[in-house]
Amino acid sequence: MKTVEDVMTTDVVVCEPDEEISVVARRLREEDVSGAPVVDEGRVVGVVSEADILDLLDAKQEDTNIWLPSPFEAIELPLRAFPWREWAEKHGLIEETLRDVGETPVRKLMSKKPRTVPPSTPLDEAAGVMVRTGYNRLPVVDEDDRLLGIVTRGDVLDGMSGGRS
């Protein structure tokens, strides 16, 4: 039976706990991944995902009672095309909201105590964990919680269907 080690990705996009969300959001988009393990001195201490960033922006929007475009556009791009721009700029809402969200350190947003698996985990077991938890990815770690790789739902499906050896 195939294991996580057979299908995991070893070139993993990671971030650190003190990195700003704006930097991490840009990295996720550039690397075309939806989430990443958070590592501190090589050890997995959390996971951050697009959903976490969306939740943060949504919570901030509720606090300010304004609507913003997608979090990734909002973090990276100035808002120029909206009729209420002048009013919002006058009151500092846009800049304050984007600054607050973008400057938030990953440690405040990440899922702490992430679900990890050792490389010897059978694929069907990893699939079960993903289904039960709703996680899209599982960091693969050694006995000291040091990151070895990551396994995604796609990796599991590829492995179970014979797409990877």
Q: How would you explain this protein's 3D organization?
A:
The protein has helices at 4-7, 21-31, 50-64, 71-76, 85-90, 93-102, 123-133, 153-160, and strands at 35-40, 43-49, 111-112, 137-141, 147-152. The protein has 165 residues and is an alpha+beta fold. The strands form 2 sheets. The protein has a 3-stranded antiparallel β-sheet. A two-stranded antiparallel sheet has the order 4-5. The protein starts with a helix and ends in a 5-residue tail after the last helix. Residues 75-81 have low confidence and may be disordered.
**Individual helix count:** 8
Provide mean pLDDT, rounded. 80
Overall shape: globular
**How many strand elements?**
5
What structural class should be given to the helix and strand makeup?
alpha+beta
Largest sheet: 3 strands, antiparallel
Listing every helix as H and every strand as E from the N terminus to the C terminus, the arrangement reads HHEEHHHHEHEEH
- For the largest beta sheet, what order do the strands appear in spatially? 1-2-3
Span between N and C termini?
A: 11 Å
> Low-confidence spans: pLDDT under 50, at least 5 residues?
75-81
Strand percent estimate:
15-25%
Helix content: 40-55%
Radius of gyration: 18 Å
